[in-house]
Amino acid sequence: MQWKTAEYAGWGRAYRAHGPLARPERLSALAAALAEPGPAIGNRRSYGDAALNDGGAAIEMTRLDRFLGFDAETGTLDVEAGATIGQIAEAFAPRGWLPAAMPGTGFATVGGCIANDVHGKNHHGAGSFGQHVTALTLMTGNGPREVTPEADAALFRATVGGMGQTGPIVSARLRLIPCPGQRVVVEESRVPDLGTFLDRLDGSEATYAVGWIDALARGKHLGRGILEEAELAEGPRPGPEKRAKSVPLDLPGALLSWPVVKAFNARYLRRIPDTGRRSKKQINDFFFPLDAVHDWNRLYGKRGFHQFQCVVPVEARDALREILTRIAKSGLASPLAVIKRMGPGRGGMMSFPMEGYTLAVDMPNRAKAAPLIAALSRMAQEAGGRIYLAKDSVAEPAVVAAMYPELDAWRAEVAKADPEGRYQTDLVRRLQLRSPA
Known about the structure:
By secondary structure, the protein is α+β, with helices and mostly antiparallel strands. It has 13 helices and 21 strands. Helix 5 (153-159) crosses helix 12 (407-417) and helix 9 (317-330) runs antiparallel to helix 10 (369-382). This is Decaprenylphospho-beta-D-ribofuranose 2-oxidase.
């Protein structure tokens, strides 16, 4: 294994890092790489600076991607941390099993899903990714150490959602869920406004539910969009496997100007008939729709983009309305805006999920984007909610500290696991997560 100096970025491409990267393929190589201080990172699908270590070293875990063992009776999978959610779904859906919680991209690694305690379109029923991890292995200075929620509760909860600060995650034992086939039956319907959207999400009995929102709509149309409700279904994969397209170059910013996005959103909304639409989709098409376009982040041009994602309590509907109103008035929103209903499930001390409504909106990296997102973050905190650190790139330390009540307990556990601060990232330093703000 060799170190290679490289420039790399988070998925939003608004921030970059420069420094040596190692890509170990075996545990022995990983152990050797740990002689150089630096965090373990995956496919860098977090949007901001969570997986960056500018000026320092980092260990990319993507070559440690093997399936280590599978129990077909219980659906228990032992897998290395560099394997992706898409690889697991592709390999095990034909055998009747799927990851219990899947983020919006199949390119997220198992280690990244644990470190960010990701959630999916079924969080209201299934909880977060970390709640389906029955054991994980950390690489320590003394070699691999298995950590379980029963025997090592504090360390386990500091690792799940802990952004890699307790050390490199080598592998994990996952509890998959039964999957009757390779089809997803999706019901799509138009929703006229935010209040109706929240009512529909509250009342949905579907296993999977997610909404697309026209984040530029205002007035009586504020929060209008499309609700998708879905169930896994029997049968083989419908239709031939689709070949992914790609964005070959950074596109000019004018393509995401307010008039263009407004027109696109109106047309996108009209694609659903008044009576709704029912269809059968491939698993990838429903769970990872944007993966069909490789490098879609280049649509935002060389400067990249930010994403604001918050969750607010169920009783904070008015605050969510104010947040969405502020976004709509700014004119910054892109066509990518998502709303979901979340349940109470969370796996770690620093996990994002809480019961309520989560809103995620992409914004081009323009001069007023960062101040707007900082203001939105404060609004979410004042409403009793929080922001998702996997998406953040601009939040303020004091605001984040107020959002996460277990921060001090997490700091104490991380200090025991990494007393020298070897695994800090740009995000951890920016938000002063390992020391009081």
